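Quarterly update from the structural biology core.
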Amino acid sequence: MSLIITYIGAQGCVMAGDKRRIAFFGDKSNREILEEELYSGKIENESQLKKRASELEITLKITDDAVKLRSLGKVVVGEVSSKSSFETKRRRIYATTNGFQIIELTGSNITKMDKGESSIIVFGNKFTKKTASKILKKYWKSKTTLKEIETIFQKVLHEVSEKTPSVGSSCDLFIKTPALDKKESQKILRETVVRDVKLLQKWRQKLKKDLLEKAEAINMASRILTQGEVGRVVNVDEDRLEIVLGKDVQAFDVNWKQLATPGDKVMMFFNGEGDIIEGDLVVIENERLCLKRNQSPLRCDIILCKSD
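Predicted structure, tokenized:
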């Protein structure tokens, strides 16, 4: 979980967020126990977290390089997310002078939306939100500049990080000061949200396509022919041979585009060792492409695979 604090006012907005990310690996029920203890504030520091994780046989990966804030023109965006086995849930705040919009997404679909004008908004778990709010009250003044707010936010993040390892001491900060009235603010925010969510949808579509292609490549790689009959020589032209593929053999290029099916002809090359006659059986033995009759080596520029 993250801690992101946002101030939105008539002169501009300030957003600060920590950079910590914690991944939990191990038994699901034990992970849930550890996360509940961490996010409730029961675990107070990193040493306690690592000790408790060891007791529950949970492996941790703790990093402080996560990018949770982004600058999009006149708007700054903060995001917290949670991942399950099947989907990612995101909560985002888009802020600028005189306005903000908050959206919740499951995958790349907006499930909830809220908007407003002037406010201080805190994203985090119950413990970090409560702790941050107390610290904010300690430092806040009735008249505070944006630069002073930036300093206050830094102090809040630092002090919260001393009370829970769920928040890191490193942080990102942004100040935006475009001259916008409330109507202009909401217009820019609405346009930014629509554009940003569309980009997320495109990214998820590309990711899905890449994963499917990778899965297909893994499947195809498992079908590469490493032993057995390939086909027979039907024509010899100096060092070039025409081979008719056997009934269970297909040919692909390096991008797994199908070039030939069983019974089709493919080109192979002969390096001059031994003799070749039409009708010779081409085989792969010990992952070596050759003639069955005299073991004369051959080469080709295709990938030979077993049929489905």
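The radius of gyration is 31 Å.
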